[in-house]
């Protein structure tokens, strides 16, 4: 297969369909939303070989800025980019760029979420409490792994020990972050049931007027955002566009692919 010819003839949308068709039904269902979100952002018809490392890195940074769990959200995208490289759709090492920036993005996200008091839904507060409990219970297992790695006396090339020390640092940093966030958080009750406008904590179903796809979002604080669960930050481009709008109205979101249009189908307070 000629790389140049293949890359020029295959669009992001076509590549997404090809990639998803090769997955198991379960993996396809888990990956589809994030793959399509990525493709819509840069344009369904855009040639894959035009996508640059900088653009992919900027996509990841925008997710981090919105408070998303970048590592889990980008995993399907990373697999998609690896597929594209292996099949000659792009010559750029796009997936490697995502992997190299993952830890930096986690640190940047934590720093941003600590900059102000988090506004959490009742559900979000409970989720953070559960995460904190799980992390604390994992401390003992982490300590045991460190002892086992340290038993290797060849410290010159003890990569597992170095990796575990780094992971322990992130574990303790996340525990401190969660403790501070829960201590200072303001729990926000859901919006009034008779409100006709989208508010904080509401679940909103929108229709992509280009693809016809329906998407469900819950508007939350950046610190609670989790795209894998449909929770989007009120500070994200689509969050800002939806906030305060009424059912039936159409909102516009500027993206590299152009202006994305969504119609609000329903609002659940």
Mean pLDDT level: 79
How would you write the strand order of the largest sheet? 5-4-3-7-6
Alpha-carbon Rg, integer: 21 Å
Number of domains: 3
The secondary-structure class comes to alpha/beta
Explained architecture:
This protein has 269 residues and is of the alpha/beta class. The protein folds into 3 domains: 3-112, DNA polymerase, domain 1, CATH 1.10.150; 122-187, Transcription elongation factor, GreA/GreB, N-terminal domain (Helix Hairpins, Orthogonal Bundle), CATH 1.10.287.180; 203-268, Transcription elongation factor, GreA/GreB, C-terminal domain (Chitinase A, domain 3). Helix content is 54%, strand content 14%. It has a 5-stranded mixed beta sheet. A two-stranded parallel ribbon has the order 1-2. Strand 6 and strand 7 (258-268) form a beta hairpin. Helix 2 packs antiparallel against helix 3, helix 3 packs across helix 5 (70-86) and helix 5 (70-86) packs antiparallel against helix 6 (94-113). The protein is flat and about 55 Å long. The model is unreliable at 1-8 and 100-115 (pLDDT under 50).
